[in-house]
Amino acid sequence: MEPILSRNFNVPNAWKLSVAESRGAYETARKTLTSMKPDEITQVVTAANLRGLGGAGFPTGKKWQFLPKETTKPIYLVVNADEGEPGTFKDRYILERDPHQMIEGIIISAFAIRSHKAYIYIRGEYVEPFRRLQSAVDEAYAKNFLGKNIFGSGWDLDLVVHRGAGAYICGEETALLNSLEGGKGFPRLKPPFPAIVGLFGCPTIINNVETLACVPPILKNGAEWFSKLGSPGNGGTHLFSVSGHVKKPGVYELPMGTLLREIIEKHAGGLRDGRKLKAVIPGGISAKILTANEIDVKMDYDGLKAAGTMLGSAGVIVMDDTTCMVGALYLACKFFAHESCGQCSPCREGTGWAFKIVKRIYEGQGSVKDLDTLLKIASNMEGRTICVFADAAAWPIQSYITKFRSEFEEYIGRNVKLEMQNVK
Amino acid sequence: MSEFLLKSLDAEAERILSKYDQKKAATLPLLHLAQDKVGYVTPEVEAWVSKWTEIPVVHVREVVMFYSMYHKKPAGRHHIRFCTTTTCALLGGDKILNHLKKKIGIDNGGVSADGKFSLEEAECLCACEMAPMMQVGDEYHGDLTEKKVDEIIDVISRSPQAAEKS
Ligand SMILES: Cc1cc2nc3c(=O)[nH]c(=O)nc-3n(C[C@H](O)[C@H](O)[C@H](O)COP(=O)(O)O)c2cc1C
Ligand code: FES
Questions:
Q1: Residue A326 C-alpha to ligand 2 middle, in angstroms?
Q2: Among the partner residues B24, B32, B122, nearest to A182 by beta-carbon distance
């Protein structure tokens, strides 16, 4: 398979404009802006079956069509580069190694949705990626690929890079908007959806870094080409982040629908020598865990949904037989307790309470009753809050305990704390 | 003290504000700018941001409290974020973190006596392919071992910049 998103990842200095241009950057944007109408672009993106790669998998063209047809307000494009989902690092690769493909995607997409102003919200800790991105944006301005009358098309576009300040929740799109407006990252109630009332109260489209990086190749090669790369209804390729107990952790670009087993055994080099697979988180820490005999699943939105979990951010965390599941749940609960924004009580109280109980179990002080309390807390968090963070916090609790119940009970029976690794 | 430093940032603050459609949207970048200069978010920093964004100081303070990257008290000249989330922990991060703590003589949230280092146990920094990993200042360091941690810390401790950079 010809790489589409990662084609420049190993090209030295591809983040510099001269190198990017020698690899064809901005040719598609020039052609598109000078020869196509905005609605035609949206139609191509819709037909390509591009689905948002930030986690929710919402069809991109359909989202763009939610914008009001007539509006006197400015329309904003906001790029979600707040990558924070544990197990995920693909957007960092794009930002660091090939920011121009994403910027080109921003230019085409902004034109398609009739936006003259775009913001990139980049995770605060990504300081080095921010510097590269900012320098790429500056270079694009200097060549008039951004700014006034881009490519002589008559279209103006300003692009501002905005740094976050360390809060996972700001990856949730409406929390991101509040944060971008200078406030705390509290998610907003929907509806109204951002396409109607978004940034500064104006119609806004929020898309992930990788989603936008898909746009230039789609316009270059056509909708049919892109949709055929993936599986039915899940167009294109995807950057899978693979980490944990594999020989070759890293980012792998593969067609949507590639089998999870193939990703682990073939692309990521398989498990460390002498180890057996125990469990896999397929889509970032929020996704329900799969056991070793559940990995013959297709890695796309529909395949993982059918398997009772989700593709999420496509962050694959591989755990071998040295992993203690109680320890793994402790880590997940620690994360969610730390990152709950505190706006809704079921989430604020639930994540804190769950973490306390899991910590007690992990430290060898738990009882079997605690497991049922945890499951009860989890079901009381699901579907009762403004955003789905609380649901995401409930899923590891439910799936780890249900799928590895006997290990939890055994651990509790021993009444001692085990080391995080090499427990067996 | 920090008022003088902040005065020197006025031109940059104006440039930042000009990029945004509304003044309040400049809150986060102005806080970053001022913190980089002053070292942490002092009451003067909050007042300065409030002046530029026309947001009441109490609201600026709420924002400061919400985000983990704003230092509410003086940090070390080299702030270390050590990832303690799943992949890093599964690959032995705990043990290396304990080693680091001994090496620089501080615990989570602490600042070393010489003001060189401060330590924060962080959640996933999204560089799990290089787990276990940490961020020192701006930079990511991955595939950590106890030996590698020693090397990183020793290089910084020896560099004259460590003393100067504020
Ligand atoms: C708790 C939470 C965290 C999220 N974090 C991110 C993130 O870091 N990056 C991202 O692109 N989307 C994230 N999302 C999804 C966004 O809300 C949104 O769906 C996405 O940015 C839309 O872009 P897309 O359609 O191109 O995927 C998160 C959602 C939730 C509920
Ligand atoms: S778990 Fe440590 S960087 Fe992701």
A1: 18
A2: B24
